[in-house]
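Supplementary Data S3. Sequence and structure tokens for construct A.
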Amino acid sequence: MSLKKLYIELTEKCNLNCAICYRKSWEHVQNEMDEKTYKNLLDSIKECEKLERIVLGGIGEPLMSPLILDALEEFGGYHLTITTNGTMVKGEVLQKIVKSCDALVVSIDGLEDSFMKIRNENLKVVLDNIEMLNEEKSRKKSETPRLFIEFVLWEENVQDVYAIIDLAQKYKAKGVIFSNLLPQTPENAKKILYSRYENRRMKELFKSLRNYSLKKGIELLLPEFELKTERRCAFVENNSAVVTADGSVTSCYRFAHNCLEYVFQREKQVVRHVFANIKERSLKEIWEMPEYRAFREAVLYTRFPSCTDCDLAEGCDLVRDTTSDCYGFSPSCGDCLWWRKIILCP
């Protein structure tokens, strides 16, 4: 299968320092995509005839990148999505977003108090920008970009879930994407809302949320809140790849950076896994590399263990990091919460 969806990380930098961000466990200097790497990327993309969708996102704030205005022009011919914290949606960037983007996903993890606690920023800044976005769409008589709110669920903001649907309706959002917290600290690991087995609390909450959002005319994308038999990788099934700020090509967001995560309070080191770099090979060549093809096939057909619900996990050395597992699969996806649909990405 050909590459159809590409996630591009123009920068690892961000203007916020959120309490639940993946960057909390990073130790390296944060990169910006340089112009040479960006040019290689543009040339590579032109060779990918089947590419349909581009997402400007990653772990950094894409609107901080010096390349953002050019990227909005270059990628406007694709189904373009931007994921953003919303604080920089203004001025010329806002105008180009309305011109070029199909969807804008804005992270809002709660109302004023929760938002300030998590992001150390005033929610009004983001809402004012969304208001300006809607005004620009109205002036241009444009239905795009469709606005989505992304909300990361944990104990600190679960009280705001109904209010966030009200907010989505008020600010003309198409829908709300709920995901779950992937903790980076042992303290936050105690505040997750999902569980291994039956979770009546979240089952009742999500049932009520579905009915509430239906009445409000707001679409919902909901994660799983307990381990299910069904497991699938949206990155692989959607024929997606990720290009990081330094030009590295990897399979998904999880393997894009070294970081620490807690899977049901069990510490795990995620080891970055890169197939190649667009500074050295084209994107199409990398996508067709035998080792990358073999990886996608193995993930598609689940040729690796399910570590998350394994009875031996607590005493297993292999689950301490992602380098390999008891099937000999490398890198290991056996503990991946995206695979379990507990964590969602646009």
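Construct B, processed identically:
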Amino acid sequence: MAGLLVTTAFYFSASGPADAAIHVQATRVIYNGQAASASVAITNKSSSTYMVQTWLDTGDAKSMPENLPIAITPPLMRLAPSEEALVRMIYSGQGLPADKESLFWVNVQEIPPSVQTANTLQVAIRTRIKLFYRPSQIKMRLDEAARALQWRLDGQTLTITNPSPLHITFSQIQDQDAAGTGKQRIDVDMIAPGQTLAVPAQTLRLAAGKPLSFSYINDYGGITKVTDVALQR
């Protein structure tokens, strides 16, 4: 009976799992519009040589769209053990709004070396991180955008409106007691510029006039907490 060789692909958001051979050294990329390009470093943490494929998508993890306003280079590279390389994103200068951020996803797909051993399972891990293109005319900082969020409680629905031109990625949203300590929480991923989200809030002990707190992911990939957020009814 012939030997069996199977390669299985998995993808992960953020910087990827600890056992990934190719490590992406950031959880997000902020592409400032005044810069000619943006970049992220990747490193081969394994003891084998890997090929690496890179591309951008606009949110569909199964797609590989062509002719996007931002190009990624190199689309294919070879990384020796412990070798580091830069993946660069370059905006063509046309096709994206100038008054708000645009969101893309950077895909880094590792391609493992061929294995001649029979009955071997190979795992090819793909890492996806967010790329935010921030036009140069936007002067608002992310912390200002987070503070500008509008929160409204309608019955058991929490409505969040983002009037800013920036995306805000939440870590968590919590109710808040008198000591400022969060008790119950709900999970919301991200709110886009100009977007309004309606979130079921049955698990939160919220009332009009009572504060809540939330945490968001800052430009460096860390978590920033905002407390004493006023609720409107």
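The two ends are 70 Å apart (CA to CA). Residues 142-147 form the longest helix (6 residues).
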